[in-house]
Amino acid sequence: MSAQSRTERPDRPESTDRRRELLAIAAELFADKGFRNTTVRDIADAAGILSGSLYHHFDSKESMVDEILSSFQAELFAAYDAVLLSDDDARTKIERAVRLSFEAIDRHRHEVAIFQNEADLLGQQERFAYLAERNAQSREVWITLLDDGLRSGALRPDLDIELTYRFIRDTVWVAVRWYRPGGKLTHTDVADQYLTILLDGIAHA
Amino acid sequence: MSAQSRTERPDRPESTDRRRELLAIAAELFADKGFRNTTVRDIADAAGILSGSLYHHFDSKESMVDEILSSFQAELFAAYDAVLLSDDDARTKIERAVRLSFEAIDRHRHEVAIFQNEADLLGQQERFAYLAERNAQSREVWITLLDDGLRSGALRPDLDIELTYRFIRDTVWVAVRWYRPGGKLTHTDVADQYLTILLDGIAHA
DNA sequence: GTCTATATGCCGATAGAC
DNA sequence: GTCTATCGGCATATAGAC
């Protein structure tokens, strides 16, 4: 959409910048209070304008969360694809996939939180059907990585792949609930500890 | 509250049973659609009555979720206490604490889901301050168990206890998102696999 | 214990002036 | 691009009849 202005003036600060600014404000509120819980008046207040003025930039509150989620997902899955297409060994690919998830939490925590909290409900509407598709796509990525790990002998052979996938997916993304950028731990610190536990467990050898 | 009728006729089916029935209906809706997203009309419809009639049983929608959460938490923490006070060794206590959590998900999944999804927001109100207290209490339990594990040599000495606590807490409770009682896997199956991964990791030895 | 009827307020969204 | 003003709808909750 609007491919024209984007390709012609990629670095021009203008109406597009105001949109992004408003979307960032909305994303923070959606992440903190929930989508339904956030009113268009909340968003307008935080932006220093009146609620009616928002409708100059966006069709509806729904189209705001739509734009937030779809653009984030596009970026995230491009990163997964890069891991899948690399020629690293199975274990390294798993480590990279975990690390890029924590990096996504670091760089886009509002978007991750919104997806975690709202995807199930929003996904019931046709407009957000792509959320379920992306979910299935994410599962494909992880099942592939774990299958490779099993076949190459990097992973223990008694693992239930489906359950292991859920374990990793949940464990990684749920960190968005407490991780804060600029805190004591960097996303790399967190990824290091998580990978240690995930790969080798907490029990003394 | 109403200690009289409860102590005098503990097994009397009456108005208290209707309350419990309505609370169970509300809990399912709160868990599936979110607290704010669920209207009193939704609850009344599901119960086959009109919305106004709910107010014969409850002060407000808030008091419904309050009763759901507080009675569940009381039961859960009694179970934690039993583990803490037992004379099992450190590793066994950790295993028992994990297992009882999956059992709670099996037996009270609506309540667990509501707590996971709504505690942060509700906790901002004075009325729900006990949610934050219970959260702190849960942390105490786990830090104690993990500390014992470290001191007794059951756990590897390089663990970051705080991060390990978050890892376990998140990993266990987030399963409420996909676990369904009566499905292919029992809560014991899930706990077995989770403990295997948690204790020994997914990497081939 | 449930129903009828309704008060009261906040919500998302729109129309048109500036 | 923002403001003024406002509509129609749905939310929680209440009062009183049955």
Automatic annotation (TrEMBL), chains A, B:
Top-level division of the source organism's lineage: Bacteria
PANTHER family, per the entry: HTH-TYPE TRANSCRIPTIONAL REGULATOR RUTR, HTH-TYPE TRANSCRIPTIONAL REPRESSOR KSTR2
The name this protein goes by in its record: TetR/AcrR family transcriptional regulator
Keywords in alphabetical order: DNA-binding, Repressor, Transcription, Transcription regulation
Residue ranges of DNA binding: 39-58
Record has DNA-binding as a keyword: yes
Domain (HTH tetR-type) ranges: 16-76
InterPro entries listed in its UniProt record: Homeodomain-like_sf, HTH-type_TetR-like_transc_reg, HTH_TetR, KstR2_TetR_C, Tet_transcr_reg_TetR-rel_C_sf
Pfam families named among the record's database cross-references: TetR_C_24 (PF17932), TetR_N (PF00440)
PROSITE patterns in the record: HTH_TETR_2
